[in-house]
Write a structure and sequence with these properties.
single chain; 306 residues; mainly alpha; Ribonucleotide Reductase, subunit A; two-stranded antiparallel sheet
């Protein structure tokens, strides 16, 4: 990982998840991944409550310290998370039901609860800080969606949804589940979400803005690392069981890669990798995301270790 905000990637509670992207040993293809039951126990220990956050200072910062142009620029990242959390909350049900073991299903049930809490977190932030004019969760989701680029819709509403819809009618289709976990846990959460969280949190900490958002979003990121650790274990097990699952992982990554890369860039950004967002260039953001994916793929066994 890059050194930016290294103290965060070194956090004990983050590393406790066993997400390979946080472990230097993953460069050698080595990681002591938690079992599904251990991940469930960790979920119990890492609880947090949206209602405990106080957004009073965040409202002052948003309206008095952050200018209109910067608020608009920040909206792409915020909107991607708010809408993304809502989308994946809906898609997880068929994936949970299709999981081949009870331990997997128990953990994925906790992930559904996590994603719903993340939606509640963003909804409360938007509402209490006054980010939008809309009233009500559905209305805020609709208004904030205007900031997303077309590739976001392709990723969630086509590529992921097609696999999930398949699982809804054929839950025994293990290859479809492997592809869904690859897209969801490795790409959407592992590459896109955790990369965005890393730089958004770092930027706000350096600027001294939105303290309650930073606190809550850090908790969201810790949840995501736990989810990705599940995905890494699941895909490593399935890849070792059957070469068809290796092909399924590769197929999903090949299809989703160009779309995921486009999602990293806001629709207002020019076609220039030197453009900065949250204090880092698009090129630096992409490098961070790809390094994280590489470490996870080495531990899963799809990329040769150093």
């Amino acid at each position: 990982m890059p050194d930016t905000a290294g103290s965060r990637t070194a956090r004990v509670d983050f590393r406790a998840t066993s997400d390979p992207a946080l472990l230097e040993s993953a460069d050698r293809g080595e990681a002591n991944l938690l079992t599904y039951r251990e991940l469930y126990s960790l979920w119990e220990r890492q609880q947090w409550a949206v209602q405990d956050l106080d957004f009073t200072q965040d409202r002052i910062d948003w309206h008095e310290r952050i200018g209109a142009d910067e608020r608009y620029a920040r909206m792409y990242g915020l909107s991607s998370f708010f809408v993304g959390e809502q989308r994946v909350t809906a898609e997880l049900g068929p994936m949970m039901r299709a999981a081949p073991s009870e331990d997997m299903r128990i953990f994925l049930s906790t992930q559904i609860a996590d994603e719903a809490r993340h939606v509640a977190f963003f909804d409360r932030f938007y509402s209490e800080v006054g980010v939008l004019h809309a009233d009500g969760l559905d209305e805020r989701l609709a208004e904030t969606s205007e900031h997303l680029n077309p590739e976001f819709g392709v990723l969630f509403d086509e590529l992921l949804k097609r696999r999930v819809d398949r699982l809804a009618v054929e839950p025994e289709d293990l290859e479809a589940l492997v592809e869904a976990v690859t897209i969801y846990h490795m790409v959407i959460e592992g590459m896109l979400a955790l990369t965005g969280q890393h730089f958004i949190i770092d930027y706000n900490e350096r600027e001294g803005t939105l303290p309650a958002f930073v606190e809550g979003f850090t908790n969201v990121a810790r949840d995501e690392h736990r989810h990705v650790a599940f995905g890494a274990r699941f895909l490593r097990e399935l890849a070792r069981e059957d070469p068809r699952h290796v092909t399924a992982i590769q197929r999903a990554l090949g299809e989703v890669a160009p779309i995921a890369e486009a999602v990293l860039k806001p629709k207002w950004a020019p076609d220039d990798d030197a453009v900065e967002l949250f204090g880092v260039t698009i090129a630096e953001t992409r490098a961070f995301a790809l390094k994280a994916l590489e470490r996870r793929m080495k531990v899963i066994g799809l990329v040769a270790a150093a």
